[in-house]
Write a structure and sequence with these properties.
CATH architecture: 3-Layer(aba) Sandwich
Helix content: 25-40%
Radius of gyration: 15 Å
Largest sheet: 6 strands, parallel
Order of helices and strands: EHEHEHEHHEHE
CATH superfamily: P-loop containing nucleotide triphosphate hydrolases
Distance between the termini: 28 Å
Oligomer: single chain
Strand order of the largest sheet: 3-2-4-5-1-6
Structural class: alpha/beta
Length: 167
């Protein structure tokens, strides 16, 4: 099944990680590829302690603001190749591609390549794609789409990102 968590609201990655924890608790093997991200976020400390969850980051240390550079593109492309390799091994029952929708929107990854990858997902594999701006072609392939919608956010009142809550 193909899941999409998209939209402008908070909680897309959090929802995907919740699914990862549930799957791991049920004994499934989970692979998480984080595109664009490259920092040591707080959740990674916990995920590293769970034997059947593997996390890899395909970002350069910060979330991209503005135009991506050559390193952003190269890192993401290497990440997509790694995911193809992971799929070929058929070792994981759940694969999460965190922020991949943003990588497509910023032209860091090519839509065509990601669609090809999704179309080759083994039937017994759950794949979750997160990030704002999910492309209509990606949405069309999905079996489940959840849109996170911001109704109110404390950022607008000047509250900065907080360790353990936003990162």
């Amino acid at each position: 099944m193909i899941h999409i968590y998209t939209g402008g609201g908070k909680g897309k990655t959090t929802a995907a990680l919740g699914l990862a924890l549930r799957a791991a608790g049920a004994g499934l093997k989970v692979y998480i590829g984080q595109f664009i991200k490259g920092k040591n976020y707080s959740e990674l400390k916990t995920l590293k302690k769970i034997k059947n969850i593997k996390v890899e980051q395909f970002g350069r240390g910060c979330f991209i603001k503005g135009r991506p550079n050559k390193k952003d593109i190269e890192t993401a492309k290497n990440g997509l190749e790694k995911v193809k390799e992971i799929l070929g091994r058929k070792k994981y029952e759940v694969i999460i591609l965190d922020e991949i929708n943003v990588a497509i929107k910023l032209n860091i990854l090519r839509l065509k390549e990601v669609v090809k990858l999704i179309e080759k997902i083994p039937k017994k594999t759950e794949i979750i794609l997160t990030g704002r701006w999910a492309h209509p072609k990606i949405l069309k392939l999905a079996h489940l789409i959840t849109e996170m919608k911001e109704i109110k956010h404390y950022y607008k009142k000047g509250v900065k990102a907080r360790k353990g809550i936003e990162y």
